[in-house]
Write a structure and sequence with these properties.
The chain is of the alpha/beta class. The protein has seven helices and seven strands. The protein has helices spanning 19-30, 43-55, 70-84, 107-135, 164-184, 211-218, 229-240, and strands spanning 10-13, 34-39, 60-64, 89-92, 146-151, 189-196, 251-254. It has a seven-stranded parallel beta sheet, with helices on both faces. Helix 4 (107-135) links the parallel strand 4 (89-92) and strand 5 (146-151). Helix 1 crosses helix 7 (229-240). The structure holds nicotinamide-adenine-dinucleotide.
């Protein structure tokens, strides 16, 4: 079936029980992938994502792990490989914000964001790459040996006052992704980022939950709508599939035009 272009491949999505991660997990499942739904809390919510993927005719399981903890990440990959034999696609999606004015930012707020948003990507990507290299290329599954997709943000481009820890982490994701793509391109491992603008999820509820907040948000978005997790899901399927086989080391911005800086539309 042409729309099940990830059939036979195993994908692990971190932070997949809400928001963008949920949207990506569902889209990968719809495209035929077997999906590992990683979560930290609320197993029952992760299970509803699993159930929806299974209802689409694909396999799925939920695995609990805090991506910032080495032992938990290693146990998650071990379980994935025991259950499904290998892993073909990793989506490093888990991310948090701990916002504060810089002079008030605590070390805990700084560390929490860097640990999840950046160290989590390191720990998960290292396990995925070890498995890709162990398994090698399986041409019947994909022309690439493995695919990693990092969930970055327009804040790898746009500085963000009041969110220095978050913007720092996403700036770090950019060179993390590009350096990995450079290091493993000759092993046919592709590494890319998705850089979303404003997507309607729990992480940014304050920006869309009242009509006033939404109106203010729209002044930043030329395309005049907030993004949906499904928008990101479609892009993740493309980046995970052989349709994007010549794309590596790139961050694809998906933001309704936020990074064309609408504030300058009338000359600045
Ligand atoms: P969200 O809060 O719904 O999702 C974040 C997910 O990460 C949650 O499921 C959470 O449980 C999980 N998570 C948090 N800490 C974790 C940990 N230690 N281990 C494993 N999982 C953990 O928000 P979202 O908007 O869906 O965010 C997903 C990603 O998208 C994040 O990396 C975020 O930075 C990025 N992003 C979001 C937007 C947006 O507008 N929503 C824009 C740009 C980038």
């Amino acid at each position: 079936m042409s729309n099940r272009k990830l059939e036979g491949q195993v994908a692990l999505v971190t932070g997949a029980s809400s928001g963008i991660g949920e949207g990506v997990a569902l889209a990968l499942g719809e495209a035929g992938a077997t999906v590992v739904v990683n979560y930290v809390t609320k197993p029952e919510v992760a299970q509803t994502v699993v159930d929806r993927i299974v209802a689409m005719g694909s396999k799925a399981i939920a695995i609990q792990a805090d991506v910032s903890k080495e032992d938990q990440v290693q146990a998650m990959f071990l379980k994935t490989i025991q259950e499904f034999g290998t892993i073909d696609i990793l989506v490093n999606n888990a991310g948090i914000q701990k916002d504060a004015k810089f002079e008030d930012m605590t070390l805990d707020q700084w560390n929490a964001v860097l640990n999840v948003n950046l160290t989590g990507m390191f720990l998960c990507s290292r396990e995925a790459i070890r498995e890709f290299l162990r398994r090698g290329l399986v041409p019947e599954r994909s022309v690439a040996c493995g695919k990693i997709i990092c969930m970055s943000s327009v804040h790898e481009i746009i500085p963000w006052a009041g969110h220095v820890n978050y913007a720092t982490s996403k700036g770090g994701v950019k060179l993390f992704m590009q350096s990995l793509a450079q290091e493993y391109g000759n092993r046919k491992i592709r590494v890319n980022s998705i850089a979303p603008g404003a997507i309607q999820t729990p992480i940014n509820r304050a920006a869309w939950e009242t009509p006033e907040a939404l109106e203010s948000l729209m002044t930043l978005i030329p395309y005049n709508r907030i993004g949906k997790p499904e928008d990101i899901g479609k892009l993740a399927v493309f980046l995970a599939s052989d349709d994007s086989d010549y794309i590596t080391g790139t961050s694809i911005v998906i933001d309704g035009g936020m990074t064309v800086f609408e504030g300058f539309a009338t000359g600045g």
